[in-house]
Amino acid sequence: MSGETKEIMSIQERLFQLEDKKYADFQAKLTPGIERDRFIGCRVPEVRKLAKAIYKENDYGYFLKELPHKYYDEDMLHGVLLSQFKDYDKCIEEIDTFLPYVDNWAVCDIMAPVIFKKHKKELLEKIYEWSVSEHTYTCRFGLEMLMTHFLDEDFQSEYLELPAKIVSEEYYVNMMIAWFLATALAKQWGSTIPYIEKNVLPKWVHNKTIQKAVESYRITEEQKVYLKSMRIKKETSTLFRSEDVTQ
Question: Which string of DSSP letters, residue by residue, matches the chain?
Fold first, then answer.
């Protein structure tokens, strides 16, 4: 048996030590399109602990290269491992290698590299690249990174144009757009509300954004009432025009 196989089998075996078949059933129901036999049933806190141990051991090189992985839990572990990288360039390189193999929302959303906080300028360039990808989860990841890192002290109103311009048939892209804009309403109400008022979003995204914002504790009751009044029932939304909403 080669050294590569030993390392990969070792990581698989460690994941199987965390197996919970009932939890695997539950995970499978939450992750449409992924076959049940790809789930080991590892709980996320346990995956995080294992990832920390493996990262500390520096014993994961071949594991990252062996794509696609057989198990969903391996993909989750992969995403958590990348989130711990301290070298920004290496982290970006490995993420770009991994993203084409990401096939579900959970693996996409678990990736949260801590090193990104220290490289905002370079990251923004990558976000624009990821967000225009035709691959569902590359696009979703880009938008999520924009939401995570650029809606607070580094916010600029022009960043809202990126998700607002995306027109997609993909449910998990549209859900991310709605999540992004609902979060933007909570954090940057003045800059974001024109996108709702001007009816520039696709109908489904418009209504889902309102729904998610109304569910947020960070939106005031007065704001919720106002948002509810702008739900679209029959009419379709107009095409996006950036000059309609930018200040």
Answer: --HHHHHHHHHHHHHHTT--HHHHHHHHHHSTTS-GGG-----HHHHHHHHHHHHHHT--HHHHHS-S-SSHHHHHHHHHHHHT---HHHHHHHHHHHGGG--SHHHHHH---GGGGG-HHHHHHHHHHHHT-SSHHHHHHHHHHHHHHSSSTT--GGGGHHHHH---S-HHHHHHHHHHHHHHHHH-HHHHHHHHHTT-S-HHHHHHHHHHHHT-TTS-HHHHHHHHTT--SSPPPPPP-HHHH--
